[in-house]
Amino acid sequence: MHKVLLVEDEQGIADNVIYALTQEGLDVEWLSLGQPAIARCQQSQVDLVILDVGLPDVSGFEVCKSIRSVSNVPVIFLTARGDEIDRVVGLEIGGDDYVVKPFSPRELAARVKAILRRQSGLLNVSAASTASVESDDSQSSVLVRGRLRLDSQLKRVFYDDQMLDLTAYEYGILEVLMQQPERIYSRELLMEKVWRSPEESFDRAVDTHIKTLRAKLKQVDEQADVIKTHRGLGYSLKAEQ
């Protein structure tokens, strides 16, 4: 059973979310403050965190930053603020998704299950395309592009033999780009291939995840220049890295 940590100070909202998630067979732990949530994630593993931005003791953004220092657990933000800049900030600091209040608990439960499925290896990317790799074994799950190596079975990506700590969306974007180097993928096409419900996200989500993905590549090599931006068109993976 997947363990979900809900961090929300409004009991009415928490009760509705807990009911919706438990109906989907998820184990939910509820905390109403940010600091105990940070301690909880440092102590033991949870599978996903639902995090309210407007907590009374500390901002949910700050909680996410602290969680990201010790864990790559998926984080979904809950907030009454719907401005795009807030959503961009949430994604840039490591959030996986963003739900604006008021929201449907059933919709939130669907998003939770989608992220958990991706974490379990069921990304919305063609496994057959990934398996047609530069290998003598036609059943190989390893895709190699220059200094990048992706294992679709383990859902891991290595750059110069160093494993990248990627979110589900970052992994999905990179997997798509690696399938056909030099092919330009529009933001709309990337969202269609990687997002479960692309119509529920926003245009800059892809740009934001590309930015965080580039930053993680540069943690391995400051000169890393793997992903090319084609203004007005989209993104591609450079054939030579």
UniProtKB/TrEMBL annotation:
<keyword id="KW-0804">Transcription</keyword>
<dbReference type="GO" id="GO:0000987">
    <property type="term" value="F:cis-regulatory region sequence-specific DNA binding"/>
</dbReference>
<dbReference type="InterPro" id="IPR001867">
    <property type="entry name" value="OmpR/PhoB-type_DNA-bd"/>
</dbReference>
<keyword id="KW-0597">Phosphoprotein</keyword>
<feature type="domain" description="OmpR/PhoB-type">
    <location>
        <begin position="140"/>
        <end position="239"/>
    </location>
</feature>
<feature type="domain" description="Response regulatory">
    <location>
        <begin position="3"/>
        <end position="116"/>
    </location>
</feature>
<dbReference type="GO" id="GO:0032993">
    <property type="term" value="C:protein-DNA complex"/>
</dbReference>
<dbReference type="InterPro" id="IPR001789">
    <property type="entry name" value="Sig_transdc_resp-reg_receiver"/>
</dbReference>
<keyword id="KW-0902">Two-component regulatory system</keyword>
<keyword id="KW-0238">DNA-binding</keyword>
<dbReference type="InterPro" id="IPR016032">
    <property type="entry name" value="Sig_transdc_resp-reg_C-effctor"/>
</dbReference>
<dbReference type="Pfam" id="PF00072">
    <property type="entry name" value="Response_reg"/>
</dbReference>
<keyword id="KW-0963">Cytoplasm</keyword>
<protein>
    <submittedName>
        <fullName>DNA-binding response regulator</fullName>
    </submittedName>
</protein>
<dbReference type="GO" id="GO:0005829">
    <property type="term" value="C:cytosol"/>
</dbReference>
<dbReference type="GO" id="GO:0045893">
    <property type="term" value="P:positive regulation of DNA-templated transcription"/>
</dbReference>
<dbReference type="InterPro" id="IPR036388">
    <property type="entry name" value="WH-like_DNA-bd_sf"/>
</dbReference>
<dbReference type="GO" id="GO:0042802">
    <property type="term" value="F:identical protein binding"/>
</dbReference>
<feature type="DNA-binding region" description="OmpR/PhoB-type">
    <location>
        <begin position="140"/>
        <end position="239"/>
    </location>
</feature>
<feature type="modified residue" description="4-aspartylphosphate">
    <location>
        <position position="52"/>
    </location>
</feature>
<dbReference type="InterPro" id="IPR039420">
    <property type="entry name" value="WalR-like"/>
</dbReference>
<dbReference type="Pfam" id="PF00486">
    <property type="entry name" value="Trans_reg_C"/>
</dbReference>
<dbReference type="GO" id="GO:0000156">
    <property type="term" value="F:phosphorelay response regulator activity"/>
</dbReference>
<keyword id="KW-0805">Transcription regulation</keyword>
<dbReference type="InterPro" id="IPR011006">
    <property type="entry name" value="CheY-like_superfamily"/>
</dbReference>
